[in-house]
Amino acid sequence: MHDIATKAFWAYIILLLAGGLFGFFKGRSKISLVTSVIFAVLLILTTFDSIFKQQFANGFANVLLILLVIVFTIRLAKTKKFIPAGLMLIATIAMLAIKNLLK
What we know:
The chain has 4 helices and no strands. By secondary structure, it is mostly helical. The mean pLDDT is about 95.
């Protein structure tokens, strides 16, 4: 992955975790915290060459990001609130684009 894409990927993972913590502390949403931690850990695992082959890791990360696009789209449709679901939806789409365009 390109250096800028790598930095953006790690920034996205931190944003994902921060969003889960925000959802937990502000809205007492345990599912928000658990989901963000699970997705963050899986995304982190895709960065280690010793765990997955690079081609599989890239594909798996894309699948995880697409799943997050679906989750955030559903959350935005349900709540009709831009923050946090809309913001995370845009961030996830941007991350998918950055990750796949900057190789």
